[in-house]
Amino acid sequence: MDETRRVHIRRLGIVPYDEAIVQMKALQHQRINEEIPDTLLLLSHPEIVTVGPRARNDGIAPPEGYATHAVDRGGGLTWHGPGQIVAYPIFKWDQENETSVAAIIEKIEAWILNALAACGINGARDERMQGVWVDGKKISSIGLSFLRWTSRHGFTINVDTPQGRVEGLAGCGLNAHTTTCLQRLGHLTSIDSIEKALEETMLKSIQRTLSN
Fold first, then answer.
1. Residue 181 annotated in active site
2. pLDDT confidence tier of residue 162, bands split at 50, 70 and 90
3. Which one of 11, 27, 77, 165 has the lowest number of neighbouring Cβ atoms within 10 Å?
4. Which pTM value belongs to this model?
5. For position 34, which CATH number holds?
6. What's the average model confidence in pLDDT over 199-206?
């Protein structure tokens, strides 16, 4: 197997969540069948809170005033909306050091941390929950679903989200206001800058590089 996998990026703009689900499932099957290379979807959603099995099992729901959608990826409640990077890696995870879900999550966390560092932002992991944290606040969530070690769903990075929306969610052991966005923490970066940093740190972080 090649140590450096080529990745094709699709920038999709604003996509309703239910449409993204259909597209992800189709691409996942295409990737399993080697019809497409590893493919990274970069997009955003109109506001929606996805409810994973952990939240459903614990009886956790968002407050009134949030649209919701049940999902089959790991994790609990995740806010999606304006000012947020949504990244869905439709990747086949069969390279070195990709032998468990935990190892794959760790690689994605490292990728986000390296991209933030390239933008002058110090992020960290936190034992409370997988994802990435800045200044003690969670700014990135990760939740994947696998079929034959090929992923769909992915991760978010909150850059400049509407006031109070992501902060209004609690669940899975986190209090409301634990999650926020980079702008609210005083990190005046942009979605374009972080997406570019994700591209530039891909090889270092996940042993993949952009296709020509």
1. no
2. very high
3. 11
4. 0.93
5. 3.30.930.10
6. 96
Angle at 205 between CA 133 and CA 100, to 5 degrees: 85
Task: Count how many domains the chain has.
Answer: 1
Question: Which residues on neighbouring strands pair with residue 9, listed in sequence order?
Answer: 40
pLDDT digits (tens, 9 = 90+) for 138-160: 999 998 999 999 999 999 999 99
Q: Which of 21, 172, 174, 203 is catalytic?
A: 172
Count Cβ atoms below 10 Å from residue 198 Cβ, excluding itself.
24
Helices and strands, counts by H and E, the chain: 5, 11
pLDDT, tens digit (0-9, with 9 covering 90-100), for 180-189: 999 999 999 9
Per 3-state DSSP, the chain is made up of helix, strand and coil in percentages (nearest 5) of 30, 30, 40
Minimal CA–CA distance to 94: which of 132, 150, 43, 41? 150
- Identify the domain containing residue 138 by its residue range: 5-210
